[in-house]
Amino acid sequence: MRRFEESYLEFRFGEQWQPIIDFDEHPDYKKLTKTIKGSKGVDFVGVFRDELNAREKLYLIEVKNFRNYRTQNKKRLSSGELAVELGQKVRVSLACILSAYRTGDSQTWQPFLEMLVDRDSWLGVVLWLEQDYPQGRDRHHKVRDQHRKATLSTRTKEYKKKLRWVTSRVLVCDHRSSQLRGLEVRNLPQSQVD
Prior knowledge:
Layout (H helix, E strand, L loop, with lengths): L1 E5 L2 E5 L3 E6 L4 H9 L8 E7 L4 E11 L4 H9 L2 H23 L2 H12 L4 E9 L10 H23 L6 E4 L9 E5 L7
Parallel strand pairs: 5-6, 6-7
Antiparallel strand pairs: 1-2, 2-8, 3-4, 4-5
């Protein structure tokens, strides 16, 4: 199990995730961002070995944790600004994988690059989006949960439009509704993270 902390969240990737890279912490990514100022990539890049379907799936995963910042991020969500940002991060990440293979540690990047250039390989983009939702188990709990799921579904359609140039496989997840097997995510109190 590989463990990472990102945006006050703990990500635990199981053994099916091989390889998995904390992308924006990798030296090859940092080299790119020093060279081309303003470049931003996704948080994780990984291959999930899907034994049920006997195939490998390449994922680019971006993490946004808007807990306690709902009001500050409301416009980013409603205006489509976050969808554009996600598209730009995917674009930079793909360019970084190619350039890192050519000028960096080619063994690290070879599995990702091979999947990217193979038209038949599976590529997915995940926006891991944590937000504040009303708590509790009162009589309105099911209605709130349905509203949360509907909101995630609507947002997924927005992100798919911005990413159709590279893939139609786009997911918006949170710790309550992850569709990714072999991945456990939990919230961390801000006081536990450096």
